[in-house]
Amino acid sequence: MTPQSGWVRPEIGQLFADYQGASKYHAEDDEWLRQIESKCKGALQQFQLQSKLLLKTLTPNAALLKFQGSANLTVDQVLKRRSEFLTTHGLNLISVRAEPGVISIAIARPHRQVLQLPEVWKSWHPDCTHGNHDLLIAVKEEDSSPLFLSPRTNAPHTLIAGSTGSGKSVLMQNIILGIACTNTVEQAKIILIDPKLGVDYFAFEGLPHIQGGLIDNQETAIQTLNELVGEMNRRYTVLKENRVSNIFDLNKKPNPTERFPFLWVIHDEFAEWMLTEEYAEAVSDIVGRLGVKARAVGISLVFAAQRPDANVMPMQLRANLGNRLVLRVDGEGTSEIALGEKGGERLLGKGHLAAKLEGEQDILFGQVPFVEGVVLEQTVAILKGI
């Protein structure tokens, strides 16, 4: 059955609507924000930097203070004094970014707000009529609006990086749940590859969207990725037969010769296998061949690793993974490879995200919602039809 709108099964929407574990508002958070504003203004004045505050916002992870930019207040001037902000004034600067006429300073909260997936997804109304390709993966720090990953409007392929404790597994859970909750099995399938034998994915066992079960050995992974290239070429033939240019128009057509499910290829801890020369050559070649051609036929690669270092991330592979979702990484070098600049090492962990998405001018900061074990089990049970 094809859903008309909303969730792929109405019980999912009901599960989220009935959720009672939403985070509570605390009046002391407002007081903390006022204190941070005063401390930051004092610090800037002590450094003889302009400090005209335009806007202040409390985010799940930080106090976001926006000051009027000028020749006397630049990003470089603030960054030079980052250690003094911390040691002298007790202000941990996560990021300092330039906006038109504005210097935006994010200062870490000592007690962060935990966002729960049901409370975030309550306000998400996906259109599942022809399958959904826009996945809600986080809440933006800037304005608390939803942050979407879309292989249709962003780049077709994605790199995820995050060290232990960064929240990478939770982000992967968000992506898999987002696919399964907003698509029928006919609309989307998941190919899941994990060298760690699926230890982070036990909760998804039996999920009907996962095609062929978990792949946990190199030989099967290479064979599966090679088959994707053949499937891509076959799909282009069908598009030509039906006189359409992409899978989205094909699946909306009243009577096409064939409809295709969107294919999500999720490869966790790929860096571990990329140390094997045979695997590295095969993967780099296959990803290069898929490249931008895969978007039109509905194939999206999501490659994740704790340390996507230069020796496991050739330039060509990096170029083809256009979207970057970076959680906390363990050094500036890893951040520069994964995000394209420093800063990933200053994220706070536990789902604090920096996203560099094709089509967006700036890096977007956000918080990935946490998926409680019981919520995950209940949602997967509904999807399995239990």
| Share of β-strand residues | 15-25%
Spatial strand order of the main sheet: 6-5-13-12-11-7-10-9-8
Average pLDDT over all residues: 91
Query: Could you give the count of β-strands?
Result: 13
Range of helix content? 25-40%
Question: Structural class of the secondary structure composition?
Answer: alpha/beta
Using only C-alpha atoms, the radius of gyration works out to: 22 Å
Largest sheet: 9 strands, mixed
Compute the number of helices: 14
Gross morphology is globular
CATH superfamily of the largest domain: P-loop containing nucleotide triphosphate hydrolases
CATH names the topology of the largest domain as Rossmann fold
CATH architecture annotation of the largest domain: 3-Layer(aba) Sandwich
Specify the CATH class of the largest domain. Alpha Beta
Distance between the termini: 17 Å
How do the helices and strands follow one another from N- to C-terminus? Answer: HHEEHHEEHEEEHEHHEHHHEHEHEEH
Low-confidence stretches: none
Indicate how many domains the architecture comprises.
2
Polypeptide structure, described:
The protein has helices at 10-17, 27-46, 75-80, 82-89, 117-121, 168-181, 218-241, 247-252, 270-274, 277-290, 293-296, 315-320, 332-338, 373-383, and strands at 53-58, 62-68, 93-99, 102-108, 135-140, 146-149, 158-161, 188-193, 262-267, 299-305, 323-326, 352-356, 364-367. With 386 residues, it is of the alpha/beta class. It folds into two domains: 27-108, Threonyl-tRNA Synthetase, Chain A, domain 2; 117-383, P-loop containing nucleotide triphosphate hydrolases (Rossmann fold). Helix 7 (218-241) packs parallel to helix 10. It is globular and about 70 Å long. It starts with 9 loop residues before the first helix and ends with a helix.
